[in-house]
Write a structure and sequence with these properties.
The complex is a heterodimer of chains A (about 250) and B (about 170). Chain A is mainly alpha-helical and about 250 residues long. Chain A is built from twelve helices and no strands. Chain A has a domain of about 130 residues: Up-down Bundle (Cytochrome Bc1 Complex, Chain C). In chain A, helix 7 packs antiparallel against helix 8. Chain A is globular and about 65 Å long. The two termini of chain A are about 40 Å apart. Chain B is an alpha+beta fold. Chain B has two domains: about 45 residues; about 100 residues, 3-layer Sandwich (Rieske Iron-sulfur Protein), CATH 2.102.10. Chain B is about 20% helix and about 30% strand. Chain B has two helices and ten strands. In chain B, the strands form two sheets. A six-stranded antiparallel β-sheet of chain B has the order 1-10-9-4-3-2, with no helix packed on it. In chain B, strand 9 and strand 10 form a beta hairpin. Chain B starts with 9 loop residues before the first helix and ends in an 8-residue tail after the last strand. The chains are: A mainly alpha (about 250), B alpha+beta (about 170). At the A-B interface, helix 9 of A face loops of B.
Chain lengths: ~250, ~170
């Protein structure tokens, strides 16, 4: 079985299509293994070599990777929810109810999105604390720490904008209170609140604005910054796992 | 061409134009882009400020004055306004808490208006008893229509000592 599979793979590797996609030869030497990583858009920001220590669970508890995983889950479930959701009052509330009680597996997807969002906030905070107590904000990681803070804010904004979308009492009052906090800003507070809500009250315009922020603008920004964040981890020398001296001791 | 390399000489350096053509053009470009950017930001701000709003009217009729007994506070839920009738006359108090915009509740047993969100307390005339609300509840303009009904304008805030005598 295994030999026939290998033989099939070998013959596949000689085809013109395969060679047009993977232009290096088989990954038999360190050089071709490195080329396999460099020559792939989705892998090129990964390190070609890593320290054994940074692969241990205790290095970061995979908190950053898990946050990324949750982000992907939230994008997928969110896009699926969009197929049944109209960002208009009062339809939004009815769509949310339909997703829970009428649409097949709708309640599963909605709760996955909801619980996933809660978990993501939790994990991102946990990740921040972990990095902070490891001293991961110190040089040369200062820039990536700031990128991380912006990502934390984006996570919170995504959470907050998504909170309005069910268009229930909880959503309405959370956003009423939140946007009144904006208007406490001196001089420009009321103007900013007006533009954020698209009116004086939390109404249809506010729902649509929060929807567009939630499904387009904030996820794109987060996607971009997550890319920078992961790439920068490698460029700054990998995870913060202590000095090389500690490597030899343990 | 040949004296290009003699720029070390200070007297030459002063005679040279302060701004090279390249610098001049790039400053013009940056300036133009800045103006265009400011214009774009202004247009974007204008685009995001709606000119027509489909929000409930801020002026409403509150019915005949006889509906309200003397020394009473009546909460109009749709309008989020208290119609208060005291021996001196009528006034309309906003029910929207000045802290973060929650709707307050009239507690007749304690004779106070209380906010359920963060515990602010007000007198029936809107005066603050305790925080976190920063300001008293505002009074709205109230008057009588030609056919003898109360009318409240929520855009017009009046002084607390103004009352409508009926």
């Amino acid at each position: 079985m295994a030999t026939s599979f290998n033989a099939a793979l070998q013959s596949l590797r000689t085809t013109r299509v395969w060679k047009s996609i993977f232009r290096r030869g088989p990954a038999l030497t360190n050089r071709t293994r490195s080329l396999a990583v460099f020559g792939n858009l989705f892998l090129h920001w990964l390190p070609v070599k890593v320290r054994e220590k940074s692969l241990r669970v205790r290095a970061a508890y995979y908190l950053g990777s898990l946050s990324l995983l949750l982000f992907i889950i939230l994008v997928v479930t969110g896009v699926l929810l969009m197929f049944y959701y109209h960002p208009a009052a009062p339809k939004a509330y009815h769509d949310m109810k339909d997703l829970r009680f009428v649409v097949s597996n709708g309640v599963f997807l909605r709760n996955m999105h909801r619980v996933g969002a809660h978990l993501m906030v939790l994990l991102v905070f946990w990740h921040m604390f972990h990095v902070f107590y490891r001293g991961g904000y110190k040089p040369p990681h200062e820039f990536n720490w700031v990128v991380g803070i912006v990502l934390l804010l984006l996570t919170l904004f995504l959470s907050y904008t998504g909170y309005l979308l069910p268009w229930d009492q909880l959503a309405f009052w959370a956003v009423t209170v939140g946007t009144n906090i904006i208007s406490a800003m001196p001089v420009i507070g009321n103007k900013v609140r007006f533009v954020a809500l698209g009116g004086n009250i939390v109404g249809e315009n506010a729902l649509l604005r929060f929807y567009v922020l939630h499904v387009v603008i904030l996820p794109l920004l987060a996607f971009l910054l997550i890319g920078v964040h992961f790439w920068r981890v490698q460029k700054d020398g990998g995870l913060t796992v202590g000095s090389k001296k500690d490597d030899r001791k343990s | 061409m040949s004296d290009k390399n003699q720029g070390q000489d200070e007297s030459h350096a002063i005679e040279r134009p302060q701004l090279s053509r390249r610098d001049f053009l790039s400053e013009i470009t940056v300036g133009a882009l800045g103006v265009a950017g400011l214009g774009g930001a202004t247009l974007t701000y204008q685009y995001f400020s709606p000119n027509v709003l489909f929000e409930p009217s801020t002026t409403f009729r509150a019915g005949n004055p006889d509906l309200y007994p003397v020394n009473s506070v009546t909460f109009l839920q749709d309008q989020q306004v208290y119609i208060v009738r005291m021996p001196a006359g009528f006034y309309a108090v906003s029910a929207v808490c000045t802290h973060l915009g929650c709707i307050t509740q009239w507690k007749p047993e304690a004779n106070i208006i209380a906010c359920p969100c963060h515990g602010s307390k007000f007198q029936p005339n809107g005066k603050k008893i305790e925080g976190p609300a920063p300001r008293p509840l505002p009074h709205y303009a109230i008057n009588l229509t030609a056919d003898g009904e109360l009318q409240v304008d929520k855009l017009q805030i009046i002084k607390t000592d103004q009352v409508l005598k009926v």
